[in-house]
Specification:
By secondary structure, the protein is α+β, with helices and mostly antiparallel strands. The protein is built from 4 helices and 7 strands; from the N terminus they run E-H-H-E-E-E-H-E-H-E-E. It has a domain of about 110 residues: Gcn5-related N-acetyltransferase (GNAT) (Aminopeptidase), CATH 3.40.630.30.
């Protein structure tokens, strides 16, 4: 069973990733902000489009089984988002292949650091790639009344260029 990691380019691929993103959101304990997430879905590839971003999909035996995205944060920093593998396809190394592909894409673009935020750190997967804990910085301001929701989020960073 061969897994292929593809850049998402066609409307058909965008529809497939939209479906994977919806599954991703449904699987999260803390659902993404509905209005912002709906805008993201409607505007795909949006911030994940080249030249600054990437949107990748994993395909196994003609089935779309996973995805990952990359977007610009600024000042040589980018962010990995939406890493998702369908449950029936987990524990096959597909997540690792997606992370490897997005790291390579970030290096090719010329980013210096790759960041991710995660509620439940996928310890083995991200440690394999040598991500290190770092201080959180959020793109959007977090209202004081919602700050408690982010208390147990982790932010990790990978240095891409030395």
């Amino acid at each position: 069973m061969t897994v292929t990691i593809l850049p998402v380019q066609s409307e058909e691929q965008i529809r497939a990733v939209r479906e994977l993103f919806q599954e991703y959101a449904a699987s999260q304990e803390d659902k993404p902000s509905f209005s912002e997430f709906e805008k993201e879905l409607a505007g795909l590839p949006g911030a994940y489009a080249p030249p600054d971003g990437r949107l990748l999909m994993a395909v196994e035996n003609d089935e779309n089984v996973g995805c990952v995205a990359l977007r610009l944060l600024g000042n040589g920093l980018c962010e990995m988002k939406r890493l998702y593998v369908r449950p029936a396809h987990r524990n096959k190394g597909i997540g690792r292949q997606l992370v490897q592909a997005i790291i390579e894409a970030a290096r090719t673009i010329g980013y210096e650091k790759l960041r991710l935020d995660e509620r439940f750190f996928k310890t083995r997967l991200f440690r394999f790639f040598h991500f290190q804990a770092t201080n959180p910085t959020w793109q959007e301001p977090i209202p004081d009344e919602a700050r408690w929701m982010f208390d147990d989020y982790f932010v990790y960073e990978l240095v891409l260029r030395r």
